């Protein structure tokens, strides 16, 4: 039976994900007189950001708070954070997302532990274009061990990309063996909390970092700080390029002295043998082996131990495409992120085949040409798909491009909400500085004695530009012009200067 327009109008606009983009979308929908329902897969709002809570953001508070969200927060007595300060991920959640989710307007409109599995429309699959036109969206949602079915008049998918990191294999496929459980247990993810919660686990172990973006750089520098505490800690670093020069940056000639200093520090650590660098290293296969087992060429899956719960007695063996092998206890894969598209299979979406963003957005965000600060404001028209009423927003809308900024996402959802309400949805100017907004990486100063648990001791995300590290979202050649550092924000005794970086690397590559 076809739903009537009146009954469809009573349905909520479902927002997928209670991250900053999803909560901002809900705030804008309310301002437009529309009913939002936010479905969050995890048990708390800001779930992705909590996982990198130890990282300091590179953009200051003034760009991280959505205007409609602030209008909900202001009457609650919320204390607006200092506009120029750089929050950690944990502070972004605690000082902004949690109070926002607890406002009387939003509190009853967010359902946690509701994971969207799939979306369709009406009672026909997507080949029946006419029969679906004007029909409500249908969402399959996992909750408390059950699968529920919900309906929506429109859907904004703001579910981010954090949950789907790029695999280690150079061709964009998992390296052979990468998905085996005993291997997966030795993979640390993109941004381990090296000097915080992960310190005990990593201290005295051999850690291999894969990637050449800022996640990799900062993990390496943090590991070096850990090694100063425990000299048994061993650090290796694998990059696809033949040289790490681009990662080291311009040194004294760098227009950002602090950034140049970080690169030089990394160079020094490599030259002094504190970090073993493998260049031209494309990860081909991973296997867990007994440390005593001799490594035989072509033998990457042999010797898998029966019990694999102890990384000391069983090592992770990494085979590179050229036949070289190395072993470590843990591997930090700083290889970028990609969107989860499976749940959108029954929607008529139009994505750029490479970037996996809405097709019209791809040219605006291509990290080969844009810094995060130069992406122009864009809204509902650019983000539209053939499936009317469905939008990708926030980090997920950028697909594999790493140049996303919250400020851009907030303008996206403002425009989408206006469009859904039939109001003027034209994208407004973002007023982002081309420089500065993409900046602010921290890493421990070797001489500063950063201690475990000292708060925001690590930072950084993979930087765009070929192999990233010296770029702030612009092509490497332009990097110095497109980035500038904010005033360093002290994060406690021993805090290091913060320098430029942005999210991800070229098309999600990180090494
Ligand atoms: C380390 C790091 C530092 C960054 N620093 C900055 C910065 O300084 N400035 C800046 O502007 N940007 C920064 N970014 C980029 C970006 O702003 C963040 O990634 C931000 O979290 C994106 O917000 P989002 O709401 O789009 O996605 P997310 O924060 O990832 O939120 C998505 C939410 O959707 C939920 N979800 C996922 N799948 C489902 C599902 N199927 N059903 C229901 N819910 C689901 C998740 O649990 C999560 O809560 C940074 C990113 C990283 C990784």
TrEMBL record:
The keyword Transmembrane helix does not apply. Residues 455-469 have a biased composition (Low complexity). Keywords: Oxidoreductase. Residues 442-485 are annotated as: Disordered. Pfam families: Pyr_redox_3. InterPro entries: Auxin_biosynth/cation_transpt (IPR050982), FAD/NAD-bd_sf (IPR036188). GO terms for molecular function: flavin adenine dinucleotide binding; monooxygenase activity. SUPFAM superfamilies: FAD/NAD(P)-binding domain. PANTHER family: FLAVIN-BINDING MONOOXYGENASE-LIKE PROTEIN (AFU_ORTHOLOGUE AFUA_4G09220), FLAVIN-CONTAINING MONOOXYGENASE. This is Pyridine nucleotide-disulfide oxidoreductase. It comes from Nesterenkonia sandarakina.
């Amino acid at each position: 039976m076809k739903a009537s327009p009146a009954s469809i109008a009573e349905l909520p606009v479902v927002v997928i994900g209670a991250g900053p983009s999803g909560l901002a979308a809900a705030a804008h929908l309310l301002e437009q007189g529309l009913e939002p329902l936010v479905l969050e897969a995890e048990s708390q709002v800001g779930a992705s950001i909590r996982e990198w809570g130890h990282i300091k953001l590179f953009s200051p508070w003034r760009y991280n708070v959505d205007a409609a969200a602030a209008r909900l927060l202001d009457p609650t007595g919320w204390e607006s954070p200092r506009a120029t300060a750089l929050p950690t991920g944990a502070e972004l959640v605690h000082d902004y997302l949690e109070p926002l989710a607890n406002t009387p307007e939003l509190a009853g409109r967010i359902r946690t532990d509701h994971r969207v599995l799939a979306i369709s429309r009406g009672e026909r699959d997507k080949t029946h274009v006419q029969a679906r036109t004007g029909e409500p969206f249908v969402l399959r949602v996992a909750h408390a061990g059950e699968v529920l079915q919900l309906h929506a008049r429109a859907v904004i998918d703001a579910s981010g990309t954090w949950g789907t990191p790029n695999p280690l294999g150079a061709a964009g496929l998992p390296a052979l063996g990468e998905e085996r459980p005993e291997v997966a247990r030795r993979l640390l993810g993109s941004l381990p909390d090296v000097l915080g919660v992960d310190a005990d686990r990593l201290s005295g172990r051999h850690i291999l970092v894969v990637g050449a973006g800022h996640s990799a750089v900062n993990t390496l520098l943090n590991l070096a700080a850990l090694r100063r505490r425990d000299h048994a800690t061993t650090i290796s670093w694998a990059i696809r390029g033949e040289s790490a020069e681009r990662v080291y940056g311009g040194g004294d000639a760098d227009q950002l002295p602090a950034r140049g200093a970080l690169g030089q520090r990394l160079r020094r650590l490599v030259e002094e043998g504190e970090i073993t660098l493998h260049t031209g290293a494309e990860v081909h296969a991973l296997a867990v082996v007994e440390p005593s087992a001799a490594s035989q060429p072509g033998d990457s899956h042999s010797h898998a131990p029966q019990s694999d719960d102890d990384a000391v007695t069983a090592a992770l063996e990494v085979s590179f495409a050229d036949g070289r092998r190395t072993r470590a206890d843990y591997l930090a894969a700083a290889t970028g992120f990609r969107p989860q598209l499976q749940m959108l299979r029954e929607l008529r979406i139009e994505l750029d085949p490479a970037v996996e963003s809405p097709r019209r957005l791809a040219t605006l965000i291509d990290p080969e040409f844009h810094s995060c600060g130069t992406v122009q404001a864009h809204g509902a028209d650019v983000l539209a798909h053939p499936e009317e009423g469905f939008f990708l927003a926030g980090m997920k809308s950028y697909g594999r491009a790493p140049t996303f900024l919250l400020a851009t996402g907030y303008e996206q959802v403002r425009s989408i909400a206006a469009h859904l309400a039939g109001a003027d949805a034209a994208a407004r100017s973002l007023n982002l500085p081309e420089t500065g907004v993409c900046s602010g990486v921290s890493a421990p100063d070797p001489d500063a004695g950063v201690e475990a648990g000292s708060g925001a001791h690590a930072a950084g995300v993979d930087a765009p530009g070929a192999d990233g590290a010296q770029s702030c979202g612009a092509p490497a050649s332009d990097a110095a012009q497109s980035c500038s550092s904010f005033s360093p924000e002290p994060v406690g005794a021993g805090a290091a200067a913060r320098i430029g970086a942005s999210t991800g690397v070229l098309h999600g590559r990180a090494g």
